# Entry
Amino acid sequence: MSTSEWPLWEVFVRSRRGLSHTHAGSLHAPDAEMALRNARDLYTRRNEGVSIWVVPSAAVTASSPDERDPFFAPSADKPYRHPTFYEIPEGVRHL
Amino acid sequence: MVAMTQDAAAGQAPDPALVAAFDAAVAADERVEPRDWMPAEYRASLVRQMAQHAHSEIIGMQPEANWITRAPSLRRKAILMAKVQDEAGHGLYLYSAAETLGTSRDELLDKLHAGKQKYSSIFNYPTLTWADVGAIGWLVDGAAITNQVPLCRCSYGPYARAMVRICKEESFHQRQGYELLLALSQGTEAQHAMAQDAVDRWWWPSLMMFGPPDDESAHSAQSMAWRIKRHSNDELRQRFVDIAVPQAEALGLTLPDPDLKWNEERGHHDFGTIDWSEFWEVLKGNGPCNEQRIGQRRRAHEEGAWVRDAAAEYARKHGEAKA
# Structure
């Protein structure tokens, strides 16, 4: 009997050239090579991808999930970073 | 992603601010994500439902795989293999999603093998003829889709995302079944009779797939309040009947219910009374194939142990070589 479960991997799939890899899901595999093969069978059965990344889930460092997390506070009060913040006279074009 | 279990310990009241934030998120139709705080009962209810769903997908491979070697053409055989492979994939999406709640894959499989977690009763019926493959695709997958489409908006993010993938793929399952039945129905007299017999046997069990009537359903009300579930069992069952009736007509087959008729006033089809005693018997383990299904699952798991061990050992040796 297996003494412990295979590690968990996060799978990222590039759906076509020109797009970035996006998270598709996760799976268990004993090593990176098997994780890639399993990811192909599990997440690209219908031509969903042209490239796959697998990353050990344990290697992911995440921010806190709290929406009121002060971690993101510096960006919340700076609307002047968005183009819509500025008033431009009507009729001015290409701006 | 790995869950962080921050739920209050049993018997200890959770922080009211956390409860309020959770309730507000659910009420605002936002998604709950793995690392969010959630009530212990919400987590337990999701694990129960997702585990049962995942188990159903992989047990559901058996009745159909039964016909792969006897498919009548290469075309049908390739289709059936792709479908059974999809069911394995659906099981894996759901196990992954369930794991985000902090339960391990091994734990879920152990509970299935020990009979401590259930799978859909529908898979305890036998597939007696080739036409059953068609009836399963059309009726069983059709009922599953009716149940699953609203789950794409389930309040738990990972479950909802898994369901989006599954629903996209299920549509092929239902259409291949319908096409298969149509070919039989328009075939020889014997083929037509075989298709009719399959529909006669699968119709009522398919209606039971929506679960007991609303007033007898143990988890429904709470699941609806948590927005895990969006519609009641009876509402979904009615939706399925209304969809299936014209589809049966187009197939040239009948549905085995003398009370089935259009009710102009309700704008729905009326249908006969479901034999719930049969449902409860199958659920209790007394269906035609309960023992066979779980026995085969256990055997497959035990007989595959050496493959898992070998892969782990290979990974260990190569990891050592690299280090």
In short: Residues 259 and 272 of chain B are 5 Å apart (CA to CA). The longest strand of chain B covers residues 261-263.
